[in-house]
């Protein structure tokens, strides 16, 4: 289940949670000077920061912020199904996860993360063509989805499309320069393609 590990599901904490000191009343007031950018704008900023990150530790922080946004949907039903699928996968229950993720993609065909996660099931089932199709759909919706690019590299590698796999790994590293799976995949493909060219 190597591809599954490329798409970690992060536990979401309540936004704006502040520790309260006992006996101290914290007034609930709106602060008009605080600007919270919309998710799409924050996502763009995090992707830009990730591409410019100077260390793996810094990249991990931006990666986490990206996943927090990408794994959320405006539909509570889809969020519930995504969490149910994650719990099922952790328990090794692929059938339940497949059912939940299929429902996600039916309810919202434009939810890139749902498509990418369903691709993990197809990959683990050995249905490489279906996995490839789902990943391509996810990448049309979110071309910066570095985990989907890495997954596509794995699928193409297993299909024997080594040049296509190399391109996919390079795309993943363009958006996330410290992604280990993509780095290792690119090294494998460069070695294999060098061998074929001899």
What is the count of β-strands? 0
Average pLDDT reading: 85
Low-confidence stretches: 2-32
Q: CA-to-CA gap between the ends?
A: 33 Å
Count of discrete alpha- or pi-helical segments spanning 4 or more residues: 9
Strand content: under 5%
Name the overall outline. globular
Overall SS class: mainly alpha
Secondary-structure element order, N to C: HHHHHHHHH
As a percent range, the share of helical residues equals 55-70%
Tell me about the largest β-sheet: none
C-alpha Rg (nearest Å): 19 Å
List keywords for this structure.
single chain, 198 residues, mainly alpha, 9 helices, disordered N terminus
Q: How would you describe this structure to a colleague?
A:
This protein is an all-alpha fold and 198 residues long. 66% of the residues lie in helices and 0% in strands. The protein is built from 9 helices and no strands. It is globular. Residues 2-32 have low confidence and may be disordered.
